[in-house]
Input
Amino acid sequence: MQQKQSHPALRALGAGIAAALALGALPAAAASYSVTALPNGATCGPTSISDTGIIIGACNDNTAVVWSAQGTTVSLGRLPGGTYSLATAVNNSGLIAGEGDTGNGRPQIWAQAASGLQNVFPNNGGNTHALFVGDSGFIGGFYTKSLGGSPSSWKGAIWTRDPKDARKWNTTDLPALSGGVDKKLTNSIPMAFNRLGQAAGYGQTDQLTGQHAVFWKSDAAHSIVDLGTLPGDWSSIAWGLNDAGQAVGESHPPFGSLPVLWNSDAAHTAVALPFPQGDNYGSAHLVNNLGQVVGYSGYATPGTWNTSGMRQVIWRDGGVFDLTSLLDPVSGAGWTVTYVASINNLGQMVGLGMHDGVLTAFLLTPQ
Output
């Protein structure tokens, strides 16, 4: 599934959007989604779904879970002494990673093992977050070691199991943007990884006005690229990444947020994604290998941060659509999509929605 060049569907996405905008109208979506309420979905929420259909998350008792093939939630437990655990990433083989504490409330990352949850990076009680598990078993995330009052920098990292000792993990830090004077004010925080080991997120130094979306390559140095902003904007963030190397996120004009797709060409060309009619504020958070982009959209009163009408949207088939409007009328009756946590490369999504007035976890499946 890994590709060195852009997936054809992703190349078509930008062309389709441009054509639709030129015509002044957006086409109707080609398919709708069936809705399945997840078992225990009123008390447990999903965080991710693999291409093989494995769904993970956490429940109201602050414990990580996986949804079993039999339709139940299975507790994954906690780290020794822990007060909570959260499953955040799963690969296609079922290896699960997440975060939890050891009694002090401070998140450390873990990987599922036969003996229970294995503490991957016991960094002196620091603050660590797992975002992704590659099919080869690596874990991608970010951390900082200081939780005190003094400034400290955040770092992206990749953890790989020590080939000589399966109880240990090796840490590779991702580089930060150059040019900062005070290194304690230099942050490099990935928000997404892909199977190639590439990452996307944002970087910040004391010499930048705001944070900039960045991309980390999969070369030996994990070279960092400043993705910049849309013309005239002051800051940006990348939230999602697919296996073709396309990143999605947002760019910020004054009092604004614009959804963006950065392509995987040499220049990482940025494309401003269109809004539904009447909207002017939004962000793109997820992208899969089919070129489907998920985010949110709404209206912001010009010159203010006052927003209204926020809804979950999907960019696909050359257009942008309110996700709730794409639900199958039978299985989707009584549902409103409020949050999409994850989309896999088959187009399945997991998240939270209101079902007859009750917040409930769901699985959306393309029809």
